[in-house]
Design goal:
seven-stranded mixed sheet, PKD/Chitinase domain-containing protein, eleven-stranded mixed sheet, mainly beta, PKD/Chitinase_dom, flat, 692 residues
Amino acid sequence: MMKNVYEPGRKRLAAVMLAVPLLTASSWGGVAGAKPVSGAAVQEKQSTASAGAVAQEGQGADSATKAVQEGQGADSAGKTAQEGQGADSAAKAVQEDPGAASVGKAAQEGQGSVSAGTDASSDAVQPAGSSTGAEALAQSSETQGNKLVISTGSASYIFNGKPVAAAQKMMVRKGYSYVPVSTMAKLYGWGLSYDAKTKEAIVKGSQGEWRFKNGSSSVRKDGSSVRMDAPAITYRGSMMVPVRSWATLTGSSLAVTGGKVTLTWGKRSTAAAPPVADFTTDKTEYRLGEPVVYRNTSHDPKYKIVKETWKGNEPAFFTPGEHEVTLEVINSEGVSASVRKTVNVVDEWLYTKEQYDRLYTPVGNKFDIDGASVLMMDEISYSVTPDESQQFIRSNSPEHLTEEGIAYEDTLTGNVRINIHNQNRSKKDLNVYLIATNPGTSAVSVKVGPAGIGGPAQYVSTSGKAAVTRYLEALSSGGITDTVRIPAGGSAVLLQEGTKLPLKPSQVRTIYADLELEGDIKLSVVAADPSRDPVAALKELPVLPRDGKHVRGTFTGADREVQVDGVVGESPQRLVLGDPSLDGYLEGVDAVTGKAEKNVGNTGVLYSMSLKVAPNTLVALNARGGHYAGALLVNGEVVQMTSGSILKNSSEAGVLYRTGAQEETVRIGFIPASGSNLPVHMLFMPLPEQQN
């Protein structure tokens, strides 16, 4: 299918905080022996990139005021685009689910029914003997389980001998002592969530699931109704339940002495012994710029070490003296140990910082470079041969979706690559679908080839980078991934698996996909409410107007072979990509309006090149139009630009490849990423001589 491409060979943010505020990090962090809380965050889990996402949220925006427009260099680097999205304000970039009440809202349903004057008093807690048998008395001082002591009038509970800041004091309502569900769930090590439809606080523990609702004495336990001594209530934003009922539901023992309530439950494990933290270096003394090899020799005879945290372990040092390095390890029981050592560096140079970076910066990582010096490198001349049979659709205008509608559509046949890139700027969830419709009188097959989908994500660069990475991974594998047979007059949603998650307000999605259309097929990019049938919606929705800034249209020649004569890298050189004066933008038409269109930035165009590269040459990528976050295919391997970060500006370069002692042919595939800026310069620099 692909021409001239080398073959590599292989929320609701709990508006009422669930009516159950959480403990602060500082207060919770000091609890000794507390179990981890699954689902401790009360927010509804918002979906981000699909499984296997290659880029974390936020990696593409170091500051809300960075210049990150998808201007492909047309806009100045000084222009502000909050969070890399061109948002009107940074505060708008991550909006709350519009269906939720404001985070500041105290509670739902009768939250003010408990007056401030009903806090617990010393005579409000009934003696244990007055109970009707709801709790079992226990010798809590002798128990081997967890122990919680709650004193009347105090918001500081004592858990296993350590003070814990509770969400609310134990309070009294109509003769019953109440405690906050949030604090109790956390101390028991259980999960907490909220059902927005039923307005229930949900606690999930080792003994099952409980659902509490404000004003109700009935608790749903694993689907069955269980009565409490008194109804659950809300107070100052917290869901409160009778402490005796909590003890009964959880199988805890309860004792009351004076103004104190003591709960005991479970068995407390004997504290695990700490692991042994240790590391070695390959030498006892290093020169300036000499690589340091660290080896973690930590061990634990009984448990698995699950985390290691280093501080000061620089790969090389560029100032003489003793440099402190610390390693902390944590075992599977949560017990930590640390070790501190010094690395001695003598006042003798092996490599300068620049030399070291070029020799040892890992592939996919970045190093500092003098951006002005790049422009002093010789520019490599090249020619471009387009594959006119490769058609291309770019649907990026309107980039910001404020309503439902058809973003773009055109009827085509043959090989088509499509690039879709949108941000949801409406006040509700939207989904973006690619729908194929057969206008003919006989069935037509649509074959889906390499595809990459990024998002939902918070940042345009995150989404664009993820999509390009996945597309190139799929391209390196090759082949058809799906075939959809569409009957005459019928329609089908393509790439369904990758677009199941809707875009919440402010989220972004990017798609690259190659299609083989074996007959006339109308391709429609549709933004619709996730609750609607997108095919049915297609017949009702209007075509959205262009935004006047971004690109939508149909083009030809979307595969380009870059041809360079001779050997590169014998001296510092640069190959410029994405500069319209050297590499013209694709020209096409907006099929909706019939007007001519240019693919500014050539986003979605696949450049392939086979270059003869001199021995001992560093191949790197330098962003020149602003930030760049994407990926390239180098000798069949996907290399992110950059791994875990982005190229922020012209003072950074990312390592793509290093040749060995012989001249090599290096095959490179490059597709400009949505959400990033052009041009980029591919650098070829002789490596410094290796020292002993």
